[in-house]
Structure formats: C-alpha cells, structure tokens
C-alpha cells in the first residue's frame, strides 16, 4: 500500500509541470504572467474602491450642491458668450431705436435686447435655485443644518453668478417714470423662495433655519449692491428690495417669542443698513432704521425682549456714527429719521417701570445714551472729535465729517428736551444719562467748532446748536419734587462743568450763557429744603467762575444775584440766612487744603482767594443783610 501511494504521488508530481507547460509554451514567461495577474487583481480592487468612493461622493448632498453651482455657472457663462457673439447683429437695430436719456448712455443695450429675445435664458438658473432651496428645506427639517446652510450659500452664489453674466443690463427704479426693465424676475423668485423657507421655519419654530434664511437675505443685500446700473446716481433698488424682505422677515418673527432670532435679525438689519450707506444713498437706510426701531419697541411690552431693545439702540447708534463719517454731502434727512427713531424707542421704553437699584432704562438705552460705556455713541463721538481737532486745515475728509456733525446737531435739542422731561416726569434714573449726555455732546460740538479744519460758517452753526442743546437743561420743572430728584444726579455740578469747559475752549459768550443757566437753576432749586445745599453750592461755583473770568464777570454776577433776590421767586429769608452762614463758613476755610469732592470744590481751591473771599462775603451780605456786619468781621 505504501509503495502504491508513492507511485501515485510521483505520477501527480510529474504531471503538474506538464499541464502548466501545455498552457504556456515558453516557461520563461511564467513569472511575467504571474506578475501581470497579480497587478490585475490589485487594479481590480483599486477600481472597486474608487468606484465605491465615487458613489459615496455622488450621493453626498454637499458635493451635489457643488456640482449644481458649477453647472449653473457654466450655463450662465455660455449665455454670456452667446450674448457677446450676438452684439454685432443687434447693435444696429438697438442704436436706431435707442433713446437719448443720459441715464441709458452706458447700458449694454445689445445685451439687453438679446436677453429680451431669449427671455427663457434664466430657466436653468431658476431651476437650480429651486433645487438648492429644496435641499435647504428638506435638510433643515431633518436637523442637518450644515447642508441647509451650504444650500442657502449656493443660492447666494448663483445670484452672484447671475449678476456677473447679466452685466450692465440692470435698470434702477425711477420715481417719476415707470421702467418695465427695473423688475427682475429671477431676483424676485429668489427672494420669494427665501420668504417661503422662512415661513416654513416659523411654522416649525425652527430658530436655526430662520436665522440661516435671514443671513442669506442679508448676504443677498450685499450681492445686489454690486449691481452695475450704468449710472452713479441710480438707486440700489434691488438691494433695497432685498433689505425690505429682510426687514419684513424679522418683523414676522416678533409674535412667536424667539428673542435670539430677533437679536440676530437686528444685527443683520443694522449691517445691511451700513452696507447700503457705504454703497448707496444715505436716504436708503430710512426704512431699515424705522424697522429696527419698531422691533426694538417690542421690549416695552415683553420683558423677554428687553435685549432686543438694547440691540436695536446699539444698531441705531452705529447708524448715527456711520452717517457722521459718511462721505455723502447730504445726510440731513437720513440722520433726522434715525434721530426720531431713537427718540421713539426711548420714549416708549421710559413707560416701563424702572428698577430701583440697577436702572433698566439706563441699561437698555445705554448703547446710545450712556456716558460711562466705552462702546456708547458718546465715547465714539469723543474719539471722532479728538481726531478732527488734530486734522490739518486742508483735510477734506475732516471737513466732510464736520458738515455731517453740523447736520446731525441741527434740531437735536428738540428730541433731547422731550426725553429729559419725560425721564424727570417718570422719575427715572435715565435722567442722569440725559443730563450728562447733553452736557457731553455740547462739549463735543464746541471742541469740533474750535478745530483748525473747521471753517467759520460751520463754527457758527456748531456753536449755535451747542447753545440750544445745553439750554434744554433750563426746562426742568420748578416743583420741589422734580428739583430734588434732578439734583440727585448732580445737576449743579454738570452745569458748572459745562460752563468751565466752554470757557476753556475760548467760547466765552456761550460760557456766560451756561453760567446764566446755572444761576437760574441755583435759585430755582435754592427755594426748597432739598438737603443738597443747591443755593450755597451754586453761588460758590458761580463766584469761582466769575473770579476766573475777570472783573466784568464779577460785576455781572453781582447784578444777576441782586435781580434774583428781588424777584417774586426768591428763596425765603430763612433759607437765605442759612445759606449766608454756610458761605461765610466756607470763606473762613478757603485756605485749608482738603479733598476735592467735586469740580466746584476744585475750582474754589484753585481760584484767586484775594478776589474770591470778598466776593463771597458780598454775596452772603446780599442774601442776608442782617448779617452784613459779619461780612466785615470774618
């Protein structure tokens, strides 16, 4: 058995080479064939993996959107080349029928005619937008916001490619003559698709889908601002249309309790208004400014929307500051509209009960009116005024900013007076912000008027507006409750600082007028027992102010004090006697060094005591003639 098995194995071994050799004639090629077969197997595996990965790529929605954009751009470029080739055929007919309007002189009329003849040239592009919006809606419902965001970006990209291909064939709206070419069907369809997508998000309360749609609308505003209307004076009508859709979309979110979405909408509206201001007419921002204010007012009715009010005031402050820096020569209407929008929000919000410790009025209206925040409008205006003061006399940009500040300040006193009186009426701590904002802006206007780059006309106008603005502080009601409340916020100190600031800037006439306002306030508040010593502190401050001004100011102060004391609203004799004793006590301590707790104290310490002491004694004698002998013995 063993021998038989060995024989079979030998026969099998000897038969295998024969079988292989019958397949391959030449044994030398066997190695090459095996190597080729091995590489073939490897190639098959690589091809399989490549095909598998390719299949995965093709079903990836992000890749599909990329392909969609590429195909759409390719199609638009094809139409643009066709229009270019057709120009020689269309130019004679177009030139024969063209009008002589200067606004049409640079339009591509031949291309316009080509697109009118081939009016279905945008069908493929519209279909691509529908597909992209379908992606955005479907994947947003599934919670895949990465894909929905890319889809909306694809819509924006398609619109940019469309504008590039259409070229100089866009026509702006005309206020007097209706232009049938001003309406663009593709742009209208795009904005309508976005509106429907936003409504779908609102129905499902999908905040992220809503925010992505709002961002796409804001992006389209920037894209449409790049449209060439073939005229430097043409309105950016399509960008305004997109901005209108954006504003309406944000407003439609208000009833649904989505504060975060409203905050994002406010920011996007503010940014869009800034883009319109930078690339269009300043008047174009009026609609957005009004919508921002109206949405900001929702914080007056709903506490959860208070941050929306704060963001709205921040955006209005940004618009005001950007208008002042704008290169446009006519911002009067736009800046007036923004100022009225600010006043609307502030007046309505003052009806909300103020919190006792941390004033909600000051907090949520602070982005515009705060005097302590480094991000507020006043802080930025101060930096701008400092830059203007350092500008050389021939700086045209600084001159343009000065003209804008002049237009902004025109009529500013009206809204600020109304807000100040309303704040005092409701006993809001916002009164502090208004007092310091008024005096601070007055100082800014005077600083700008004294800049070397400011011409005489602008200087006179700015100083006039500063005079009217600071005069609003004289409208404080003269009842005891109002006077006591206002003095809590250092009204006497604020007026004194404003008078000193005006004098330091060389505006002596305005400084005297502010001094008169301080005198009026001193006797208005000095009639009551408020605990603040308004009469004594005010008269001491006025004396120091007069001494630093010279003999003429001292004489004017004497006359004014006598006039006030003989008037019908003079303080009672008891108050005058006590004030006289306090003034005499202050005279006795003039030469003592101490801590300066206020600007009035500092001015008294730094004044010429040889003149100040006798003047204060004389004032004390006028207040209390019965103490006249003390004025000579002390």
Summarize the structure in words.
Mean pLDDT is 87; it is low at 1-21 and 93-104. The protein has helices at residues 2-23, 30-58, 61-97, 109-117, 123-141, 145-166, 185-203, 207-224, 237-253, 259-279, 286-296, 298-301, 306-324, 332-349, 360-364, 366-369, 377-389, 396-409, 412-425, 430-449, 456-470, 480-487, 491-504, 508-525, 534-549, 551-565, 573-588, 599-606, 609-623, 628-633. The chain is built from 30 helices and no strands. The protein has 634 residues and is mainly α.
Question: What are the salient characteristics of this protein?
Answer:
634 residues, mainly alpha, 30 helices, disordered N terminus
Given the structure, what is the number of helices?
Answer: 30
Uncertain segments: 1-21, 93-104
Radius of gyration: 39 Å
Query: How many β-strand runs?
Result: 0
Shape: elongated
Structural class by helix and strand composition: mainly alpha
Summary, kept brief:
With 634 residues, this protein is mostly helical.
Question: Layout of SSEs?
Answer:
Blueprint: H1 2-23, H2 30-58, H3 61-97, H4 109-117, H5 123-141, H6 145-166, H7 185-203, H8 207-224, H9 237-253, H10 259-279, H11 286-296, H12 298-301, H13 306-324, H14 332-349, H15 360-364, H16 366-369, H17 377-389, H18 396-409, H19 412-425, H20 430-449, H21 456-470, H22 480-487, H23 491-504, H24 508-525, H25 534-549, H26 551-565, H27 573-588, H28 599-606, H29 609-623, H30 628-633
